[in-house]
Specification:
The chain is α/β, with parallel strands linked by helices. It contains 15 helices and 20 strands. The termini are far apart.
């Protein structure tokens, strides 16, 4: 008897994966692909969308014909800030432009000037000014730079919905893709910002992310989801557990702090401190802050290594010493050794005086003290004034750093701190939103000792 599965295409900037989930949302198969980048019509690097589309079609054909699996549903999760432009016949008009592509600063500045100024516009759209990372500005870029091409555009889709469209031929939009620093969504009125209409741009109205279309593939009926933005997808599984309100720390090169329970409006000050809003699978704002934690940790470790002449991975073998962390913190009496002083400063000192440390262990524990202070400050930016968040869930690389976990518990003694061991969280979220049974999930939660 064939095993019933949901197929999820998880499309990242570097790796593209096809994962199969059983009815209990356990991964039963995982395949990873890497595609060489191509260049767009301006010579700038971009994803080879034609190759990706063929991979998806061929993969689905193979699954429908499989002797081992019975394909019941398909969904897609992709990186954001990427658009596809369709003509009258529904054909893609352009490459999938890279969000790192440069933009003439006059384009966003003219938009800001027409709609309340930069600070107010960015506040209302919960989108820091990030150039082409604000996908709405990509539309204006195409309109400004390639007017002949733009005149042929009939529909504009975000990347997850475009990938779904290649299978369903249905035009759609949903909140998670619109609400990720796109500069398209007005978080005050919770609808498209009026600039979209004022520029004569028509975008599809968002529908629930759980929506599926029934498609016939080689004679078999398959439910196909409309896609979901990867950051919101990674948050989705945590809504399935009943442990109270939570904040998710996704750690790695970046530490992304996501709070889906803070309904306060984003302020200009928070925007200046690298905050923004996503939207959850329920269409509600997810206030988010970020810190370049992994990068800062790597740079700090190099400073220590250069002084003590130890292997670069020395910290991986070091035991967390709570008393030592407290001792060095007390010795410096709150003064920063590695980082510059000043509120929310994330820059290293021009000269770090390593001679104040008696050992490698002291230096590393002080580095972690300072990094965790920066992390706590970043987290507090997205906590509501009346803080009722009960739990912190920590995923990613720093969930395995015992010293980091101890210091997070110290910084938030009133909260329960958990690590979460969950692989392929974005793909799991994409499967969860279209799964009809909604099984209980094992998110690998382990409570950290205070």
């Amino acid at each position: 008897m064939k095993e019933k599965v949901i197929a999820i295409f998880d499309i990242g900037k570097t790796n593209k994966k096809l994962l199969l989930f059983d009815e209990m949302l356990n991964v039963v198969s995982e395949q990873e692909e890497k595609f060489a980048q191509i260049t767009d019509d301006d010579g700038f690097e971009c994803d080879d969308i034609g190759h990706i589309e063929k991979w998806i079609r061929d993969s689905l054909t193979g699954l429908v014909s499989s002797d081992k699996y019975e394909l019941t549903a398909v969904n897609f999760t992709t990186y954001g800030a990427t658009l596809a432009y369709l003509d009258e016949e529904g054909n893609r008009l352009t490459p999938v432009y890279n969000y790192l592509k440069p933009i003439d600063e006059k384009i966003p500045e003219n938009l800001y000037k027409r709609h309340g100024g930069r600070d107010e516009f960015c506040r209302r759209t919960a989108s820091p000014a990030l150039g082409m990372l604000n996908s709405g500005l990509q539309i204006l870029w195409l309109k400004h730079e390639k007017p002949g091409l733009f005149s042929r555009v009939k529909n504009i889709l975000h990347f997850p919905q475009y990938i779904s469209y290649t299978i369903t031929r249905k035009i759609s939009s949903e909140h998670t893709s619109i609400g990720c620093h796109t500069a398209l969504w007005d978080f005050d009125s919770m609808k498209y910002h009026y600039w979209v209409d004022s520029y004569g741009i028509t975008l599809p109205e968002p529908i629930p992310v759980e929506t599926t279309e029934e498609v016939i593939l080689r004679g078999k009926k398959i439910r196909v989801g409309i896609g979901i933005h990867d950051s919101s997808a990674s948050l989705a599984p945590y809504f399935s557990i009943d442990k109270g309100k939570f904040l998710l720390l996704s750690t790695g090169t970046w530490c992304i702090n996501m709070n889906p329970f803070n309904q306060e409006k984003l302020t200009a000050d928070q925007l200046d401190k690298d905050c923004l809003c996503y939207m959850s699978i329920t269409g509600q704002p997810v206030k988010s802050s970020r810190l370049f934690l992994g990068h800062l940790h790597e740079a700090g470790v190099k400073i220590i290594n250069d002084h003590f002449k130890k292997p670069e991975d020395f910290f991986k073998k070091m035991k967390a010493d709570k008393s030592l962390a407290a001792t060095v913190k007390k010795r410096f009496m709150g003064r920063k050794v590695f980082f510059q002083t000043g509120p929310y400063s994330r820059e290293f000192r021009e000269y770090v005086d390593m001679y104040g440390f008696n050992s490698l262990e002291e230096a590393y524990h002080q580095l972690m003290n300072e990094l965790c202070d920066l992390t706590a400050d970043s987290i507090r930016l997205v906590l509501p004034e009346k803080d009722d968040i009960e739990n912190l869930y920590i995923t990613g690389g720093f969930s395995k750093n015992e010293l980091f976990l101890h210091l997070m518990c110290e910084a938030f003694p009133e909260k329960q701190v958990f690590t979460s061991e969950i692989s392929n969280s974005s793909a799991l979220g994409a499967a969860l939103v279209i799964c009809e049974a909604k099984p209980s999930l094992n998110l690998g939660l382990t409570e950290c000792r205070k």
